[in-house]
Amino acid sequence: MPSEPTLESPAHRPFRRRVVLNTVSGAAANGWAMLATLASLPFVLHGLGTTAFGAWVIVQTFSARRGWFSIADLGIGAAATRAVAVHSATDAHAEAGRVTASALVLCAVIGTTCAALLAFAGPPLLPHVIVLGSGVQTAFQTALRIFAVQVAAEMIGEAAGDCLAGLQRTDLSRILDAVRRTFVAGGTAAAATVRPQLEAVAAASVLATIIALVLTLIVLGRYVRAVQAPSMRTIRALLSQGGAMGGLAVFGVLQGAMDRVVVGAIVGAGGVTLVEIAAQLQAGADAVLAAVSVAVLPAAAWLASRGDAPALGDLVRRGARYCVVATVPVSVSGMVLAGTLLDAWLGPRYGDARNLAVLALGTPLLYAAFQVPSLTVQAQGRAASVLKPYSLATLGNLALTVGLVYAWGPIGAFAATLITAPGYLLPIMRITEETTGVTPVDLMRTCVLPVLPAAAFMVVAEGAMLALPLPSLPLLVAASAAGLAVFVATVARTALTSQEVRQLFQLAGRGAGSSR
What we know:
Mean pLDDT: 83
Number of domains: 1
Helix content: over 70%
Low-confidence stretches: 1-5, 507-516
Radius of gyration: 22 Å
Order of helices and strands: HHHHHHHHHHHHHHHHHHHHHH
Number of helices: 22
Structural class: mainly alpha
Largest sheet: none
Distance between the termini: 31 Å
Strand content: under 5%
């Protein structure tokens, strides 16, 4: 396996330590937050019931973080991350402070507008689109009005976290996001248990989000070196730069949110519950993928601002390989053990979600090698180049989702996503090859093929363990532990060099002592 001399040079050592520290911290924070979310779901599901839980999922599709209103961000968060990273790399701390203030003010205005739109337009309109039971409709309308407050708080919190990432403090940004998600998971689970009403769950989610927002703003204030007033010039620049990045975000939102809305409109709230169960398992794999790549956007922007193309190519190759190594065991193990996992997690009542979960976990598996190239394209300001093919792929995805959900039910939503995936991935690789020299063949040879033997051995080990006559929870623990042990032992020989393994541990240990 070829070495990466550019990133190993002494000049890049502090930067490399910060990237690794951000990645390790992000992985830990995302892992904890995902566990908290998965642990809370059975309490909320059993407390509210299938139909009311499906209605709560529809309410959450209007989130400003991963729902419809995240489109209104207009790419400002990603543009702020890139701008703050570039200014910090050139020691223009006053400009970094101005970008931070401008992003916060702009997102506050947008978030308040979105909140008002949801509060006043959502309750009268949405019950005519989503198939709800008569006993849930009033609670659904009230929950929408309550959740509108969370939309504004989320928009501001996202901007604050993006600015922290631009300051190369992605570790703190991810930790604060994990705190928020833990507060929300714990609050909604408690509300569903103590007062199992949709309105109470929405109120608990809003309160947890506001508390987390205050903490995030306090931390951000400590790391902005030169606090500046916002300016219209900077706001216009963020809107201009964020347009293309926001366009890319639209497609990610549509893939997730439109599945729930289409299933809700065609099948009903009960079908949305099955989609959400599968989507939560997919979110676990997505969280691992996001954690491994969380430091890429600010790091790539930092390298691109210095014109360091060789180091950028090295970052793509190494980052993509780590993404595949981290995502494969989670996705493949989840696919093999899906039935046992659902039985241990939610009980036999929701076994119908098994096939949905298998297809859902295929999405992060397919995208793993392309996550870092996608972020690198955004970091270089080339997002506009893929908007047209992404638009066509998204329209195709939407049309196919509607057709397959009518034909197959909820599982059709996940099948459509997998079928249309090449429309998203091929444009990214074309630009990545132009700017870094990394080709799809390179990614297959250095990132995917070396991991295949480990994945195959893991499947065999877990399949053999499933034959044991054990209850679902002990069987899940034993099979996943055996599969992971086999995977790690194999992948350390086929996909990672001993030097890389040592460096990961050494840099993570020393990273805490490195300067910002």
